[in-house]
Amino acid sequence: MDETASVPTRQPSAAGAAEPTSSLAGLAFSKGHGTGNDFVLIADPGDAHEITPEQVAHLCDRHTGIGGDGLIRAVPSRFLPEGRALLEVDPAAEWFMDYRNGDGSLSEMCGNGVRVFVHFLNEQGLVDLGPGETLTIGTRGGVKKVVRTVNGYAVDMGPWEFIFPDEATSKAMDALVSADGLEVARPGLSVSMGNPHTVVALAELSELSATQLFKAPVVDPKPVNGTNVEFVVPAEPLVEDGVGTITMRVHERGVGETQSCGTGACAAAVAIRHWAGSTAPNDWHVKVPGGVVGVKFFPGAGGREHVELSGPAVIVASGTLS
Question: Where are the residues of the annotated region Disordered (predicted)?
Answer without folding.
Answer: 1-20
